[in-house]
Each structure stands twice: as structure tokens, then as C-alpha cells.
Amino acid sequence: METIVFKELAGPSAQAEEVKDEYHEGSSRDGSTLLEQQPRHSDHHVTAHLVTDLSFWVAVLFVVGSGVWITNGFFLFLPLVNIGTDNAAAVGWSAFVGGVLFEVGTYMLYVDALNAERKNHETKDSVPSDSQDDAAEKALRRRNTKFRWIGFGSWHDLYFLACFVQLWAITIFCVCTITGLPGVIPGFPDEPPTAITDTLYWTPQVVGAAGFVLSSLLFMLDAQQKWWLPNLLSVRWHVGFWNFVGAVGFTLGGALGYASALSTGVEYQSVLSALWGSWAFLVGSVFQLWRSI
Questions:
Q1: I want to staple 273 with a disulfide (CB 3.0 to 4.6 A). Which of 25, 131, 253, 286 is the partner?
Q2: 3-state secondary structure of 126
Q3: Which H, E and C letters describe 162-227, residue by residue?
Q4: Residues 216-228: pLDDT tens digits?
Q5: pTM over 0.85
Q6: pLDDT tens across 83-141, in order?
Q7: Which of 88, 93, 65, 79 is nearest to 271 (CA)?
């Protein structure tokens, strides 16, 4: 009889303890480590999960957006090595599309961060209840954590801070994708007014990309157990790292852009920095897509 009672007590409650032990702050955005990732659903359940999973669509938008930025980089780079001709319209519009995709993706990432607590409750509520009181508590918790499209999260949460910084960074960066469209700045990109170009094109690129550097560092720190020790086995850490590399490339591209009209060598390095930065963003986005799946 004692054995039977022990097994009954060790059923749902033991599962709850197991989930509690595996759960940690940030688990809603940290799929698994590279060594621990295992399939948990059937193909049907995975498909249904991905359709409603914001993190999956964030990753898709960043993968597509990175591809657009790579295309934009080749539009700029190939004429510098005497392959093809300049196409200002293609450069401007591809940058605009890439910026929009990154903006939408970052906003969805921010929304996902706002609802991290709600997602964590849903994860813990999936454990079977062993009493009516537990079921009532879970129902109340779900009602009190409604889905939010706007608002603020905890300022003590590194993940939320990273998303907040990145949202502002990409919004500032998108200014240069608008001013880079054909006809917005007179004479751009051949002989535009220097003051206007520096103020409305290069500066938003530098400031926005620098914001991406900061947000990527915050994402990496959030994925680490210790602030000084890189978590090389975490997929989420690699997402932050490769986005950091990409952001450095975009920052250098903008910083060198101030003098690109004065030197073909500087222009070459500016374009090349943005190109390898785009490839780094693609690597980080693929890691992010893999984690969400």
C-alpha cells in the first residue's frame, strides 16, 4: 500500500518538479544547448507549433532580410571590381526592403519578449494538475497574463533590454534605408550634398548599427551562465555572436562611408564591410531558425 501511495504522489507532481528543475529564467527564448537539443513533437505537432510561434517567424524574417542585404552588398561590390554596372535603384530599393524585414522581425522579437512570462506559464501549465486547486490557479494565471503587442517588460531582464535596444537601433538604422531611395537626397549617390548625406544617410547607419552591437552583446550575456565565460554550447549565444559580427560590419561600413566619396579604397572597404556583415547576419539568422524549429 505504501508503494502505491508513493507512486501516486510521484506522478504529476514529480513531472512538475522535473519541469521546474529544467526551467530557468529565459527558458522561453532558449530552446536548448547544442548538445542537448532533442525532438519533442511529432511532425504534425511541430508544424502546428511553428505556425503560431513568433520566434520562428522572427527567424524567417531575419533569414530573408539577411539574404536581401547580401544581394544589396553584391549590387554595391561587383561594380567596384569591374563586374557589372552601377544600379542605384536596385541598391536603394534592396536596402529599403532589407530594412523593413529587419524592422518587422525586430518588432516581433520585442513582442515575443513582452510575452515571455506568459509563454513560461503556458510551459509550466502543460504539466497535469494533481488537484482542482492547482487547475484553478493555472486558469487564473493564464487570465492574468494576457498577450501584449505593446508595452514594457522588466528592466532587470537582459533579454528584454536587448530586444528594446535592438528595436530602437533598427528604427534609427531604417532612416538611411529611406534616405537612400532614389530621389530622396538630390544627386545621391554620385554627387550628393555632403552635409545632408552625412547627417541623413551615414549617421543613422552608424548609430543604428552600433545599437545592434550593444543588443547583440546583451543577447550573448543573457545566454551565458557567467558574464566573463562565453557559452559556446548554446545556440542562443551563437545567434548573438554572429549578429554581433554582422553589426560590427555594418558599423564599419557606415563609419568608412563618411570618406567614401574621397577615396576609392575607403569606398571599397566600406562596401566590403557591409557585405561580410550581411553574411554574418545570415549565419546568426540560420542559428536562430534552427533553434526555433
A1: 253
A2: coil
A3: HHHHHHHHHHHHHHHHHHCCCCCCCCCCCCCCHHHHHHHHHHHHHHHHHHHHHHHHHHHHHCCCEC
A4: 999 999 999 999 9
A5: no
A6: 988 999 999 999 999 999 999 999 999 999 999 876 654 544 444 555 565 555 555 55
A7: 79
